[in-house]
Amino acid sequence: MSRDTGGAYQRAHRRSLEDPDGFWLEAAAAIDWVTAPTRALDASAAPLYRWFPDGTLNTCFNALDRHVAGGRGAQAAIVYDSPVTGTRRTLTYAELLNLTARFAGVLRGLGVGRGDRVVLYLPMVPEAVVAMLACARLGAVHSVVFGGFAAHELAVRIDDARPKVVVAASCGIEPTRTIAYKPLVDAALAQASHRPERVVVLQRPQLVAELTERDLDWDTAMATAEPTECVTVAATDPLYILYTSGTTGPPKGIVRDNGGHAVALRWSMENVYGVRPGEVSWTASDVGWVVGHSYIVYAPLFTGCTSVLYEGKPVGTPDAGAFWRVAAEHRTTMLFTAPTAFRAIRKEDPDGELRAGHDLSALRTLFLAGERLDPQTYRWAGDLLGIPVVDNWWQTETGWPIVADPMGLEPHPTKPGSPTLPVPGYDVRILDPQGAEVPPGVDGAVVLKLPMPPGTLTTLWGDDERYIASYLSAYPGYYLSGDGGRKDEDGYVYVMGRTDDVINVAGHRLSTGSMEEVLAAHPDVAECAVIGVADELKGQVPRGLVVLKAGVHREPAEVSAELVLRVRDTIGAVAGLRRVDVVPALPKTRSGKILRRTMRDIADGGHPEPPSTIEDPSVLDSLRPTLTGERTND
Ligand code: COA
Ligand code: AMP
Hints:
The chain is 31% helix and 24% strand. The chain is of the alpha/beta class.
């Protein structure tokens, strides 16, 4: 009784909403199950939904073992390309399986089993992939913490996830400096109240860390490790926790399951990204973010692709032609990154001269996500590469695109400023504050009608109530995305920006509320606000405004430097706070509510930069001992 109207996309989208069981059970056939599911959606605990409740599988088996068994053993699984260390290394599926099975043996030897948590604090090295998949192999739950976060943020995550083991590298490498990770891990463990039993340390030659009795050297452990078989888990068991910035309170531990995740990502790789088994994909992000989890690691490996793992920046390693060199050399069919990367390249090489001489004939599509894609960047990238540029909107919470141009299913005409159409599985609505749907062209809250498809978050780690309160209560029956936007007459979705205190700095998601907490804790600060202001390169950057306590008469520049340093020490360099202005008062309503929008409008109005901007915050590191009022992250 199918209504045969519309193209492949429309048919798929309609069916995914009208018959989610049929649609997703069919997609589930692309996954190897230990026990194949007979049902897709389980709504028995709504509004908490589960997928494939009677299915069992192993995620690592689907990423590695089955490909080796199926004849891909000699194919490259990971191509590690690291201009910051001058290293290149290819790991075939057979080699990656061998390393992963042995590292799973190491973790098992440390007592890690099904359901135990393991925190990973690793840069963009193949061992990060090995460690993630080794956890999956054991049915353990990994939680990767991005290397740009400071010790305090790591401690908060350790206390929430309560890992049995932490796996860390001795250092991370930024183009301008080497960041010692081990002291950050030690500081985090000193602050945390939870005590993991062991820390496995991957020693990198660029900076070798001192080990204590609690620490175990990666190479030493691997030398005698026995390979371990896959542990069968329920489709609904957690695969990972990924912390993300929330509006208020500590970071939210997004929980991803095994079965729904495998089905959705496998489906998305071909239908949304248009990449087929055996092809080479390159996602230039970081394994510490959701884009890295999904499209550097899991989706390409579930699909039997070769995934490029790039340790470097789009500019400065060595120049703004780095992306063209990598795409040409590895013959990547897709490149996926954040618009900021392209703005950074455009700034250094506006005429795209460095692209010349690189053979990009294999590159079919450029995907951009993580922040709003401004039409200027969209056009510049399209003109430079002469291939489709596909904006896609999603979040840590969903794990895969909500709105995109489904390139594998059916490409659509694009409209600059819009990530195109809701992906099958997602029922995107725009609501007014009363919960009524608004007509096309009118702005409102972007919400997703429940249930969301497989692969989306199942809850917040250990806190169903917070999940319901934060996401499912504002509009009963809908998931609140936190973004505002609209649809047009053709159903194209436009996402205009967050309606809460989350900002996107260079594609990195940060909470202004958590920066305010740090500023407010300074002994001289009476009140403060942190707002996101428009930035040509990073999309948005945070800016702090503080009012000093009565009787405090200090040099504003000195207080400002202290506050920038505090945020850097507590949250991390990635917060990108470089400017804090000391002001006589904050604009407020009569009832005392701070008028953030007014401040943002004033700030976006192009006021000249005052001297309180710290152009290079790393210089503050050396000034730390001389700055008064400075407290460490205690
Ligand atoms: N480990 C340690 N420090 C890190 C880090 C990491 N993994 N990633 C970033 N940092 C530090 C940077 O060194 C920088 O420190 P600084 O203040 O001392 O200069 C700070 O955090 C801010 O980093 P970032 O916002 O990335 O700015 P940048 O000037 O170093 O680089 C871009 C700007 C645009 C080149 C860079 O942000 C980029 O490549 N973005 C691509 C987007 C992306 O990958 N998004 C992820 C989601 S898809
Ligand atoms: P993250 O959880 O880090 O992926 O950040 C998710 C947030 O980034 C979303 O809620 C949006 O605010 C923003 N975002 C991501 N992709 C896009 C996009 N394509 N267009 C507009 N905003 C985006």
